[in-house]
Amino acid sequence: MENGKEVLRVENLHVFIDEDVILEDINFVVHEGDFVAILGPNGAGKSVLLRAILGLLPYKGKVILSPETVIGYVPQRFAPEHDLPLSAEEWLKLSGVNQSIIEETLNKVGFPLTSLYQPIGILSQGQLQRLMLAFALLRKPTLLFVDEPLAAVDAIGSEAISQLLSRLSKEEGIAVIFVSHDLILVNRAASHVVCLNRVQVCFGNTREALNEKTLKELFGPEQTIHQHIH
C-alpha cells in the first residue's frame, strides 16, 4: 500500500537522555500497509526511537499521528515471574474481548490453544512473543510497533512471525514498525527502512535505501557489509 493513508509522520526528532544526544534529526513518514524496519547496529538508538514515538521518552521535534490511529505495542521482552498465578487466557481476557475473538487471534499468530490455560510464567520465549502479539492485535491496531520481534525465537518461529507481520501489513492494512539489527530479515521482509546510527542514515524503499554507502555507515568496513548481505 505504497500510496495508502498517512498514519505517522516524524519531523526533526531529537532525543536526549540527561545531557547526551541519543538521536538527532530523525524524519520519516509511515502509511497504512507499510512494513517498516528500524535498522541499525547495537546502541544505534532503535528502541529509543520507538519509545520516543510512543511517548515513553521526552523528545524535541514532532510526532504526528492521524486522528483515527490505534496503536499496538509488543515490547522486546516480557518476562513474567515463573510462579505468577495467571494463565494466558486470564491475561488475554484483561483486554475485555470475548473468548471467540481471543481464540481467533491466537490462531492467527500461531499460539497453541493447548497452552491457553497454562500460567504465563512457564511459557517459552517464543510462546510469550506470540502471546504479546495476540494481546496487541486484540485492540485492532492500525499502527503496530514491535521491538526486536525475533530476539528470543528459534529459526522456525522467526520465519513464521516475520511472515505473519508481513501478512498483517499487506492483507489487513496495518502499518507495522519493527526494530531489528538483522539485515537479512529487513532486506527480505520490510517494504521500507529507517537506518539509524544515532543519526538518520537513510529512509525509503528497502531495496533502494540499503545501498553500499548506507550499509558502510551502519555496519562498518566493506568486508563486514558483504558478510551481512551474503
3D structure, described in words:
Helix content is 36%, strand content 27%. It has helices spanning 46-53, 88-93, 99-109, 125-137, 155-172, 183-189, 206-209, 212-219, 222-229; strands at residues 6-17, 20-31, 35-39, 60-65, 71-74, 143-147, 175-180, 192-197, 199-205. Helix 3 crosses helix 4. It is globular. Mean pLDDT is 86; it is low at 223-230.
Q: List the secondary-structure elements in sequence, H or E.
A: EEEHEEHHHEHEHEEHHH
Q: Given the helix and strand composition, which structural class is it?
A: alpha/beta
Helix content: 25-40%
Question: Alpha-carbon distance between the termini?
Answer: 29 Å
Low-confidence stretches: 223-230
Q: DSSP strand (E) fraction?
A: 25-35%
**What count of helical segments does DSSP give?**
9
Provide mean pLDDT, rounded: 86
Query: How many E-type strands?
Result: 9
Give a quick account of the main beta sheet: strands, pairing sense, barrel closure. Answer: 6 strands, mixed
Envelope shape: globular
The radius of gyration computed from the alpha-carbon positions, rounded to a whole number of angstroms, is: 18 Å
Could you name the key traits of this structure?
single chain, alpha/beta, three-stranded antiparallel sheet, globular
Compile the SSE list and pairings.
Elements: E1 6-17, E2 20-31, E3 35-39, H1 46-53, E4 60-65, E5 71-74, H2 88-93, H3 99-109, H4 125-137, E6 143-147, H5 155-172, E7 175-180, H6 183-189, E8 192-197, E9 199-205, H7 206-209, H8 212-219, H9 222-229
Parallel strand pairs: 3-7, 3-8, 5-6, 6-7
Antiparallel strand pairs: 1-2, 1-4, 8-9
Helix pairs in contact: 3-4
